[in-house]
Amino acid sequence: MPSFGPGWHVSPDVARSIVGVALLAIGAVTLIALMLPGEGTLTTWWRNAFAPFFGAGRWILPFVLLAAGFYVERAPSAGGGWQLTLFGATLSFVAMLGLIDVLMLPSPRRGVELSGGYIGTALGGSLSALLSPPGAFVVLVALAIAGLLIMLDTTLHGLFAPFGRGVRGVASVLSSPSSPGADERRPATSDRQSRGPGRPLTGAERVARTPSTGHTAVCGSDAD
């Protein structure tokens, strides 16, 4: 149980809620600072402080913080699961910043705000120098997927299973006949067409086709 001094003890559930509320508040302030630049001294300072570290990923940061805060606040238990989930989300987000830096075309006018920021440049640039840009791309994609597996607490098969089901569903729709009701309408064709042209109705067929009126229908024999 966290302790903040003599006699100050906070339960794990309360500590988790405090972390969730803090993430929600930081995410909301970050979004306001990005959407309303220059509208407040504190928000302007905050934007100038965090934006260089995240570069183009700064527009994703507030939504990541809001989602993380909502998840932590709504977590079903106070165990170590939510901490591990936050770690996985952070790993995926940092790997995405590195991917942004690797994928951005080199340009003399490209600044920090058009790249992965200080974090993405440090990660993507270091890996590109060690493994070349294609190798850095592969490693960063692997890190992003690993973060998602940790965050969602699933396997690689479980992560891509919904996509596989979606692809199979689309393929089955595309491979189905163009007129699905054609087979259902086929039994409605006339008996004469199914028998072939030229062959008359037999006595049994005429009896079967005679409406029920309560009287015995007299039909000729096949010899007729």
Could you characterize the architecture of this molecule?
With 224 residues, the chain is mostly helical. It has nine helices and two strands; from the N terminus they run ββααααααααα. The chain has helices at 12-35, 41-54, 61-74, 81-103, 117-152, 156-175, 182-185, 191-195, 203-209; strands spanning 3-5, 8-9. Strands 1-2 form a two-stranded antiparallel ribbon. A hairpin with a 2-residue loop joins strand 1 and strand 2 (8-9). Helix 1 (12-35) packs across helix 2 and helix 1 (12-35) packs antiparallel against helix 3 (61-74). It is globular and about 65 Å long. 18% of the residues are buried. Mean pLDDT is 76; it is low at 216-224.
Q: Could you tell me the radius of gyration in angstroms?
A: 34 Å
- The chain-level mean pLDDT equals 76
Secondary-structure-based class equals mainly alpha
> Mind summarizing the main beta sheet?
2 strands, antiparallel
Spatial strand order of the main sheet: 1-2
Fraction of residues in H or I helices? 55-70%
The rough form would be described as: globular
Count of helical segments?
9
Strand content: under 5%
Give the H and E element order: EEHHHHHHHHH
